[in-house]
């Protein structure tokens, strides 16, 4: 069993990784938004940007509420997995913007799965992260429906 201090450090590392993931997602989505101005995707991408801002705010609020701060650590497990998945998806050269959005959501969902798999997170934080993960899954489903509108009725 982990010591309480070790749990706090692990929790801070996970949260800092997730905040960095969302910060990078905002940068990615901002670049996409430029290419989608006037297109039906512009509003959806703006929603993704705002969601990432809200996710960061929620995580930062949690950290401030626990007085945990932002540690200077070398353990970047969640971030490294997310970044590695993005690299794999990039290497496979997705055919279009929606595919890139889907792959990015896939990687973020996987990062949340890893973050939630550990035993270091308290129940309140698990609830916050589970809720955020469900939003990411909904985003992924919406992206898939946009990619394949003919299969929207059967998509889940």
| N/C terminus separation | 38 Å
Q: Return residue spans where pLDDT drops below 50 for at least 5 consecutive residues.
A: 70-74, 152-156
Rg, nearest Å: 16 Å
Number of continuous helical runs? 5
Mean pLDDT rating: 78
| Biggest pleated sheet | none
Description of the molecule:
The chain has 156 residues and is mainly alpha-helical. It is built from five helices and no strands. It has helices at 4-35, 41-65, 77-91, 97-117, 123-147. The longest helix has 32 residues, at 4-35. The model is unreliable at 70-74 and 152-156 (pLDDT under 50).
SSE order and pairing:
Layout: H1 4-35, H2 41-65, H3 77-91, H4 97-117, H5 123-147
Helix pairs in contact: 1-2, 1-3, 1-4, 2-5, 3-4, 4-5
Describe the structure concisely for a colleague.
With 156 residues, the protein is mainly alpha-helical.
Q: Could you list some keywords that capture this structure?
A:
156 residues, 5 helices, elongated, disordered C terminus
């Amino acid at each position: 069993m982990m010591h309480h201090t070790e749990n706090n450090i692990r929790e801070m590392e996970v949260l800092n990784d997730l905040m960095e993931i969302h910060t990078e997602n905002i940068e990615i989505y901002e670049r996409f938004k430029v290419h989608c101005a006037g297109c039906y995707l512009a509003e959806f991408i703006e929603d993704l940007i705002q969601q990432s801002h809200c996710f960061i705010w929620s995580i930062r609020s949690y950290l401030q509420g626990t007085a945990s701060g932002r540690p200077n650590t070398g353990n970047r497990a969640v971030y490294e997995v997310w970044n590695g998945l993005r690299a794999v998806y990039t290497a496979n050269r997705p055919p279009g913007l929606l595919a890139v959005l889907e792959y990015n959501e896939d990687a973020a969902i996987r990062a949340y799965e890893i973050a939630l798999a550990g035993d270091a997170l308290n129940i309140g934080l698990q609830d916050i992260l589970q809720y955020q993960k469900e939003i990411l899954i909904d985003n992924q489903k919406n992206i898939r429906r946009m990619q394949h509108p003919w299969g929207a009725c059967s998509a889940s």
